[in-house]
Design a protein that fits this description.
Elements lengths: L2 E2 L5 H13 L3 H9 L1 E2 L3 H13 L3 H14 L4 H14 L2 H14 L4 H13 L5 H11 L4 H13 L3 H12 L6 H13 L3 H13 L5 H13 L3 H14 L4 H13 L3 H14 L5 H13 L3 H14 L4 H14 L3 H15 L5 H21 L1
Parallel strand pairs: 1-2
Helix pairs in contact: 1-2, 2-3, 3-4, 4-5, 5-6, 6-7, 7-8, 8-9, 9-10, 9-11, 10-11, 11-12, 12-13, 13-14, 14-15, 15-16, 15-17, 16-17, 17-18, 17-19, 18-19, 19-20, 20-21
Pfam families: TPR_11, TPR_7, TPR_8
Keywords: TPR repeat
Protein name: Tetratricopeptide repeat protein
């Protein structure tokens, strides 16, 4: 039934619709506004916004168009209309509208920003030019600074990524998105001592997650703070307990700190979780057993590493060392070092080749003397 009311009597209907919408009863709120007749500009505006928010985009666009035809100077309504056009996928229409708004209000940075967003959605690289125009109009525009910083990080232009991030953080010092770009940039530059306090600030803002803690763990590891690294990798696992990289890094860290039992546990977990080649994990397990002087188990896992990746030089060298420690037969020891040198001499790691040659020479002398 159509609700016919005088213009001045529309306020109760609007208030009732607002109350319904506020408690989540959007369908009844929309129905209430649809039944109002005749509709004032305020009714059309609320009705269109409610319809857009609930996904009834065609109806929302129709009501925005009616309202703008009646009152073409409503800038906020035009902005809502453009946003709904974007949601509908009518990007060119939205761009035309923002272009008109920019011409009317040339100092409004947000209209230019939205044109950049539209080009970003269209996979048009000129979006970056629009974001640069934005900060010429407003050098505190957080979203534009974030997009510029992120773009420079992706392009490996790290100094510019730092520049835009810090430019934004001058005005929004606790913004997690800008802090994240800055921290990631420092990581790419191997400036771990700068990445650490930046990631810590993100956590202090309550924005810690698996990515933040794992990156922070890696930074602490590279700075030699193994206990702090362990603490953060454990925190990363609280967010995602089946992350093979976190288990793998914990396994390596526990080996470095002498906790070989935990090292074994996490390295085995990494292998169980990971579906792609796991030669690095098997190698680390082999090295853990080497530290435990369990040379038989070391050989077992080094062989597994080589099954996964026959070109893993470190695994083949460590296999020769493990065989040297495990087997008593001199020829068997010699054969393992020869296998390594036959494959990697002249192209492998100089230090490992030197050690293998030196040990092979000693074994040959020992074999000669034993005859």
């Amino acid at each position: 039934m159509m609700l016919v009311v005088k213009a001045g009597a529309q306020t109760p209907a609007l208030t009732f619709a607002d109350s319904l919408y506020a408690v989540g009863n959007s369908a009844e709120a929309i129905k209430t506004l649809e039944e109002v007749s005749p509709k004032s500009p305020v009714v059309y505006s609320k009705l269109a916004r409610y319809q857009s928010a609930t996904g009834n985009l065609d109806a929302a666009l129709t009501n925005y168009e009616i309202l703008l035809n009646q009152e073409p100077g409503r800038v906020l309504t035009a902005m809502d209309y453009a946003a709904t056009l974007i949601k509908k996928g009518r990007l060119e229409s939205a761009d035309s509208l923002y272009s008109l708004l920019s011409q009317s209000y040339p100092k409004n940075a947000n209209f230019v920003f939205q044109q950049g967003v539209i080009r970003e959605l269209q996979k048009d690289s000129s979006a970056i030019d629009y974001f640069k125009q934005v900060i010429h109009l407003d050098n505190t525009h957080r979203e534009a600074l974030y997009k510029l910083a992120k773009n420079e990080l992706q392009r490996k232009q790290y100094n510019m990524a730092v520049f835009y991030s810090q430019m934004g953080l001058e005005h929004y010092p606790t913004n997690a998105s800008l802090l994240s770009i800055l921290a990631q940039t420092y990581m790419r530059q191997n400036r771990y001592h700068l990445a650490i306090p930046t990631f810590e600030e993100i956590i202090a803002q309550g924005q810690g997650n698996e990515f933040v803690h794992s990156r922070l763990g890696f930074a602490y590891y590279n700075e030699g703070f193994f206990e702090k690294a362990i603490e953060n990798y454990k925190s990363a696992l609280e967010f995602e307990d089946r992350n093979s990289d976190s288990h793998y890094n914990l396994g390596k860290l526990y080996a470095l700190t002498g906790d070989l039992e935990r090292s074994e546990t996490h390295l085995l977990m990494a292998i169980l979780i990971k579906k792609q080649p796991v030669d690095a994990e098997y190698l680390s397990l082999g090295l853990t057993y080497k530290l435990k002087k369990d040379h038989k188990r070391a050989l077992e896992y080094l062989n597994k590493a080589l099954e996964e990746n026959p070109g893993n030089e470190r695994a083949l060298y460590e296999k020769a060392v493990a065989a040297d420690n495990y087997f008593k037969d001199l020829q068997t020891k010699i054969d393992h070092y020869r296998a390594y040198l036959n494959k990697f001499e002249g192209k492998g790691n100089d230090d490992m080749i030197y050690l293998a040659k030196t040990r092979l020479s000693d074994l040959k002398k020992e074999q000669h003397l034993s005859k």
